[in-house]
Amino acid sequence: MSLHLRPIQFVDTPIGLPEGSVARLAGGMCWFAAYEAIEDGVRRTVPVAEVVMLGERAIRLHDAIIRLRPALTLGQRTLRLDQPLVAGILNVTPDSFSDGAKHLGDPAAAAAAGVDMAAAGAALIDVGGESTRPGAALVWEEDEVKRVVPVIERLASAGTLVSVDTRKAVVMEAALAAGAAIVNDVSALLWDDRALAAVARAGCPVVLMHSPDPAKGGHGRVAYRNVLTEVFDWLAARIAAVVAGGVDRARIIVDPGIGFGKSLADNLAVLNGLAMFHGLGCPIMLGVSRKRMIGALSNEAPVGERLGGSVALAIKGIEAGVQLLRVHDVAETVQAVRVWRGLKDAAMMPVR
């Protein structure tokens, strides 16, 4: 098994600490003092200042973990990745698990909802025309195009930054032509054989999400020996394949795929180990809003009653340095992020 490093021992501020005793996570707002080093099933704690003693792979991982993620220039818009951002979920589907049918068949109303999310503080609106919940019906690609393109056109014309949530190359191409700037693919460009080439031609950023069986829908279950390191290694291999296919590594975002082919215990382990994924050297998107695990941990709360859990997991994400939070409840999550940022900013000021 290869060495993996998980940043631990987070601190509020580096002020007053010995030089070199803490490191900044992905050039962002979080600082940490040590790593959990995992190798051949053995775990040990290593201070940041001693990571070079673990060898060449550790040095590469450390460099990737602390490196600032460059901003994404998307036409006239810039998406800064040195601070946590919120992406609003906008589904135009009849059957999505949370808000299915809410905006189906009314692109003007859907776009207005997206503009409202942007006004509430969303940096990005993620538009999807096909549900990827377990058991969801496959949507013909032309029907998916008809659902998302009119909405994306309206959002783009209003100056809103848009990503398209799809697995299909035809939909990707139509959405990008309509004004979308980013492709968000739950199959990591593995469901459609044409998808990788479509993204490479477009030169757009792409979100690669982990699931154990992306070509079959993403919800198959496997028995993980160590879910955290296995998801990391899968994403590392997928990044390498996508780069080899012509996509600029600097335009790749990763998503650990909470809820896709993972048990509750698996999901909790991935969330507790999120900071490890900075070792991939890419920005991280986290999608946990209103998901089943929240209900499982809160007396089977239905989808509409999972706001508290969604915000709690969002804060867990940004405490681990996640750059993008994909959420349904934009205003509430943005408020939580702003309060968190206020606390971080205050911690950086010397106490008088």
Give a written overview of the molecule.
- The chain is an alpha/beta fold and about 350 residues long.
- It folds into two domains: about 5-65, no CATH class; about 70-345, TIM Barrel, CATH 3.20.20.20.
- About 35% of the residues lie in helices and about 20% in strands.
- The chain is built from ten helices and 14 strands.
- The protein has helices spanning about 55-65, 105-120, 140-155, 170-180, 195-200, 225-245, 265-270, 290-295, 305-320, 330-345; strands spanning about 5-10, 25, 30-40, 40-45, 70-75, 75-80, 85-90, 125-130, 160-165, 180-185, 205-210, 250-255, 285, 325.
- The strands form three sheets. It has an eight-stranded parallel beta sheet.
- The protein is globular and about 60 Å long.
What number of domains? Answer: 2
Strand content: 15-25%
Give a quick account of the main beta sheet: strands, pairing sense, barrel closure: 8 strands, parallel
Q: Choose one word for the global shape.
A: globular
Kindly provide the radius of gyration, computed on alpha-carbon positions and rounded to a whole number of angstroms: 20 Å
At the fold tier of CATH, the topology name of the largest domain is TIM Barrel
What is the topology, as strand order, of the major beta sheet? 12-11-10-9-8-7-14-13
